[in-house]
Amino acid sequence: MTSTRPYQSYVYAYPHKTAYRPLGEHPAGRPPLSELWADEPKDALSLYLHIPFCEVRCGFCNLFTRIGAPDELTTRYLDALDRQATAVRDALGDEEPVRFAAAAFGGGTPTFLTAGELERLCDITEKRMGADLRAVPLSVETSPSTATADRLAVLADRGATRVSIGVQSFVDAEARAAVRPQHRSEVEDALGRIRDARIPVLNIDLIYGIDGQTEESWRFSLDAALAWRPEELYLYPLYVRPLTGLGRHRTAADAPDHAWDEQRLRLYRAGRDHLLAHGYEQVSMRMFRRAGVPQAGPEDYACQTDGMIGLGCGARSYTSSLHYSFDYAVEMREIRGIIDGFTATEDFSRAEVGRYVTGDEARRRHLLQSLLQAEGLVSADYRERFGTDPRADFPSELDRFAERGWLDGSADPGRLRLSPEGLAHSDALGPELFSPAVRAAMAAYEAK
Questions:
Q1: pTM metric for this prediction
Q2: From CA 429, how far away is CA 9, in angstroms rounded?
Q3: Residue 130: exposed, middle, or buried by beta-carbon count in 10 A (0-12, 13-18, 19+)?
């Protein structure tokens, strides 16, 4: 068994936005979107719209979001989103059909918007971008306090196929410890409204590793979630990151906390085994799907292969050679400034901040995004894409993972797949696949 620390970084995109840089500093300058997308496949794009507002900010949250939206800020934000969508759709051109395979509204909390504003968000998606929301999977994130009947009715009517609600814990004391002000009764009422809306897929997010949490209280939250028979469950380890509510109270003496690592691993294994015993299948370290439930859309990381359009100041876009976005921050004052800048922008025709991802980086991204899924990587697919074999491209990394017992030695020889312990250590394995250049860029980023 390895002594590598299991909780280093949640790799949900590669490269991370802290490795992005202003493209005006790049020799090629700020590329026009029309040039970026000119030769890209456009028949299976993912579309993501980011709403950077929440009623409160949880103690563990380092997402790009601000508390509240004073002085009609949501109206100005949607106006800017409309301008951006128009510019992006123009940049995609009409030479070949543009088709979206999936759409998502994330944040922040998209349901921070009123029912009327959600209607407008859907109109921007359909009328400006040309995405048929009733014909493609549409996932929307929500919270207990904003999952109101009128908002959910709009989403159901406009074609939402999946709603993901951040519960984190059904134990009130644990929710308070995570600086998430909610009561179980409010959570249960929200879940009831989601089920009443008859949106096909319900996902519930839970967190393990909260201060004061025990195996018994963790089991209590799991069972409370299972009572709603959610089609999906995500189990997240708690992280305490800089500039977050919990992070401000942490000192150098608090880390590294090996006892906390062991607690989180223990709770992860207990949660994993409990869900497997109750008819769920593991899709990744975090994601579990109820057996027999069809896949609602592209799996995690698929958008990085097929191409993604991100709208909103916290959204990423992916082409085959460039990942781009707007500036990134965690500290509230910086986030407010970026949002204000976005709402004042008139010209969205060029990429602002990003990182070119070609050659070795593209191979790393493909290996990483595939290996962190329970089904693993099919070597033949990798060879077809890159003309090389992953074992030849990454011999030292894969040998190291095998020595630690993180690779499934019994798997099909044509497939690279993690063992159960490899999946448990996804947050250690993923960062080990970062390139030296990306590591250096992330290390040089000044957190703000």
A1: 0.92
A2: 9
A3: middle
One-letter amino acid at 194 equals I
pLDDT digit string, tens, across residues 169-188: 999 999 888 877 789 999 99
**Radius of gyration for the alpha carbons in the chain, expressed in angstroms and rounded:** 21
Counting Cα atoms < 13 Å in the Cβ hemisphere of 229 gives: 5
**Could you give the C-alpha distances from 197 to 113, 149, 344, 406, in angstroms and in order?**
18, 8, 36, 42
Look-up: residue for tokens 């997308």?
37
The domains of the chain are located at 17-303, 358-448
Q: Which two tokens stand for residue 268?
A: 């992860």
Residue 109 CA to residue 68 CA, distance in Å, equals 11
The neighbour count for residue 42, using CB atoms within 10 Å, is 17
Contacts of 227 (CB under 8 A, 6+ apart): none
**Non-local CB neighbours of 117 within 8 Å, separated by 6+ positions:** 74, 75, 78
67-76 contacts: CB < 8 A, separation 24 or more?
67/332, 69/112, 73/339, 73/343, 74/112, 74/113, 74/114, 74/117, 75/117, 76/343
Give the count of beta carbons closer than 10 Å to the beta carbon of residue 123. Answer: 15
The count of other CB atoms within 10 Å of the CB of residue 83 is: 17
Q: Please give the biggest Cα pair distance in the chain.
A: 59
* Residues 38-93: tens digit of each pLDDT: 999 999 999 999 999 888 665 555 567 788 888 899 999 999 999 999 999 999 99
Its CATH class, for the domain covering 358-448, is mainly alpha
Task: Identify the CATH assignment for 17-303 out of 3.90.650.10, 3.30.830.10, 1.20.1250.20, 3.30.750.200.
Answer: 3.30.750.200
CB 60 within 8 A of CB 238: yes
Length of the chain: 448
Residue 61, pLDDT score? 57
For residue 391, how many other CB atoms are within 10 A of its CB? Answer: 13
Detail the DSSP E strand segments found in 226-279: 232-237
Amino acid at 437: A
